[in-house]
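Usage

Read records sequentially. Each one opens with the input sequence:
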Amino acid sequence: LDGAPLAASKKILLVYSTDALNTGFEASDDRVTLHKQGTLPVLMQTGVLELEFKNSHAVDLRLDALGFDGLPVEELPVKNEAGALKLRIDTSALKAGPTPFFLLSVR
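and closes with the structure output:
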């Protein structure tokens, strides 16, 4: 988000995209033929994202789960080992429910 390379960035948006379908959605097994469009709420598949990379600001970065409005809803733990960030995000364990959006930013 700040235009810097990942290794030097102070603001990084992570998008963990999983399957998302309307409630009651029905389609053929290959999803080519739509039988029912379904309705809200959208149901999002949960999952676990594990990520590791070096960043010169690793000690100062915090990780926030973002709501669909882009605002932080929960701070998540970040491990820093010798300048390498280690993240483990389990979207099924988020207090406000699953989201695909996460922000790493300098405190």
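Summary fields computed downstream for this record:
- The longest strand covers residues 48-54.
- The chain has a mean pLDDT of 96.
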